[in-house]
Amino acid sequence: MNNIPVVKVGIVAVSRDCFPESLSVNRRRALVEAYKKRYEAEDIYECPICIVESEIHMLQALEDIKKSGCNALCVYLGNFGPEISETLLAKYFDGPKMFLAAAEETQNNLIDGRGDAYCGMLNASYNLKLRNIKAYIPEYPVGTADECAAMIHEFLPVARAIIGLSELKIISFGPRPQNFLACNAPIKQLYNLGIEIEENSELDLFESFHKHTNDMRIADVVRDMEAELGAGNKKPEILKKLAQYELTLLDWAKEHKGCRKYVAIAGKCWPAFQTQFGFVPCYVNSRLTGRGLPVSCEVDIYGALSEFIGTCVSKDIVTLLDINNSVPKDMYDSAISGRFPYTHRDTFMGFHCGNTNAKKLSGCEMKNQMIMARSLPAEVTNGTLEGEILPGDITFFRLQSTADCVLRAYAAEGEVLPVAVKSFGSIGVFAIPQMGRFYRHVLIEKNYPHHGAVVFGHFGKALYEVFQYIGVEPDEIDFNRPREIRYKTENPFGE
Predict the structure, then answer these.
(1) In angstroms, rounded to a whole number, what is the distance separating the alpha carbons of residues 236 and 138?
(2) What angle do CA 199, 200, 206 make, to 5 degrees?
(3) Is the CB of residue 411 less than 8 Å from the CB of residue 396?
């Protein structure tokens, strides 16, 4: 994954000057030691220059962590802490920050050894609010060295996404296809999030593609595709064009990212794409997404944004799927009922033409796109990667701006079931607890598009924190609620 940030958290301990400084010094050392025992030492940097008790100390610590290459900050209350200096440190640090506090250690030392950081967190949070400073505060932010180390580790994926968004450019090609109004993309919220957007014509892409016709690198890319596809290489005649297109996108991303470090692409794939380019781009999209450069289908700008967030959070390959079709009753009865703890309404099929990376499929074949081939010559619809999505844990999620620029998000954890799909495309049988109610009272009620990003694993907790940190209002962050928690629009006299 070479298109996402590497996070280095600077740990700065603070102390109120009426408390023994040694409390914060010793607790910081214990925290760092605990982290390095359990996680990667390169994730963190211990600021040794001072314990922050004043604004002068704050400036010294700030300079030190910047010089050490830290792009995230952990303000650690070893004791009560100086509420002004510690929040100014957060204010002047340009990057994601978290606050946590040391728990008391033993009943045998509650005089000089009592730190009162439990109380100090209250003052810190109050001052953060006064200064309009956004900071990540764990669910229970007071803990032992081991517990605080785990909190910092949980902060890493959140910080990675926040840093990534601050340096992201989304590149799009062409307007969304006709009858795809759901994939609207008001750009105001992108700017509010600090994201740049470059919108291009399909003709720009077409021109660049033709300039790559005799690119000397094409043969190497074809060989790489052949090795990846193996026996699934059912359309070898199309690989040269696909390689040419892959190089076109890679060069465009490199040449157009400008002052930004990271890129995501919202690509066009129909209706005129096939007849003009002579193929469908699904396989290329899957390959680039597999390298950490998400390429969404159907010019879905917020889909590409969601995929990028998922890549940052998971450090793994993601995909973008249609929340597509119901599971037939006879399939549910024969393959799911009694084997898995899901009702029929908990299940659905996630599908796209062929954009899911080969590493996330149980097997794959290069084919032509069946839906498009119903109305076009089959030879111009080659380039889709078909296969069943690997069984295992997933999180379905999306960040979206509504047409009237309200930022909304959802995350729902579930799994892909080991059930034969008996259909086509990149596809799987998904199961999410209480999906039927979630489908009706979130996806339909809040006007979400049919595309959802999929991250492979349960990452709802980190995604929820990312959405909160970037400013999505709590009422606009949804999840699949258990039966006993009603949605606002849910009829209390219903089923």
Answers:
(1) 51
(2) 155
(3) yes
Measuring CA to CA, how many Å separate 263 from each of 131, 171, 353, 457? 32, 7, 23, 23
Answer for the pair 81, 117: CB distance below 8 angstroms, yes or no.
Answer: yes
Closest among 253, 250, 281, 247 to 267, alpha carbons compared = 281
Please, which residues have CB within 8 angstroms of residue 460's CB and are 6 or more apart in sequence?
395, 397, 411, 412, 413, 479
* CA atoms of 151 and 153, how far apart (whole Å): 5
Count of C-beta atoms within a 10 Å radius of residue 455: 27
CB contact set of 240 (below 8 Å; sequence gap of 6+): 218, 222
CA pair distance 403, 108, nearest whole angstrom = 60
Write the CA distances from 25 to 87, 108, 115, 266, integer angstroms: 19, 20, 12, 49
State the pLDDT confidence band at 182, using cuts at 50, 70 and 90: low
51 in Cβ contact with 25 (< 8 Å): yes
Q: Cα–Cα distance between 371 and 255 in angstroms, integer?
A: 34
Tell me the residue type at 388: E
| DSSP code of residue 444 | I
Q: Are 164 and 313 in contact (CB under 8 A)?
A: no
pLDDT exceeds 80 at position 183: no
Which of 249, 265, 246, 69 lies closest to 168, judged by CA? 265
pLDDT in tens, 277-310: 999 999 999 999 999 999 998 889 999 999 999 9
* Sheet of strand 196-200: strand arrangement: 196-200, 168-173, 262-266, 295-296
Instruction: Give start and end residues of each alpha helix (H) in 428-470.
Output: 435-438, 460-469
**Helices and strands (H and E) in the chain: how many:** 16, 18
415 forms beta bridges with: 393, 431
Distance of CA 365 to the CA centre of its chain: 27
Q: Whose structure tokens read 């601050």?
A: 166
* End-to-end alpha carbon distance in the chain: 46
Segment 189-243, tens digit of pLDDT: 999 999 999 999 999 999 999 999 999 999 999 999 999 999 999 899 999 999 9
Distance CA 267, CA 249 (A): 10
pTM above 0.85, yes or no: yes
How far apart (Å, rounded) are the C-alpha atoms in residues 459 and 160? Answer: 14
Buried/exposed code over 54-91 (b: 16+ C-beta within 10 A; e: otherwise): eeebbbebbebbeeeebbbbbbbbbbbbbbebbbbbbb
Task: Dig out the tokens for 451 from the structure.
Answer: 């595309």
- Measured between alpha carbons, how far is 199 from 299 in angstroms, rounded to an integer? 10
314 contacts 457 by C-beta, under 8 angstroms: yes
Residue from 456, 178, 472, 214 nearest 319 by CA: 456
